[in-house]
User: Fold this.
Amino acid sequence: MAYRRVVLAVLAGVLVGLGVLTGPAVAAEPAPGSEIVLAQTQPGPVLDPAETERANGENSRSKLIAGGAAVVLAGIVFWGRRVRKKRRSGG
Assistant:
């Protein structure tokens, strides 16, 4: 019983230390007359739809190859276990 209380106290201390149990933080209001400047981001790269489609096709092909290899390896494992089980039982 005392062990449970110690664990709960430590957990509560960690959560308070992380700021989870202290409630929401209030953002400081900017001083009157100060201007807020937002950073301007540069536009991203222009992607060619043909290149995107080709890349997606290559990605799909590599996933199919990896999936096929996984199925073959799983089959080998199950077949090997079946053979070993038959040998143990003498059948």
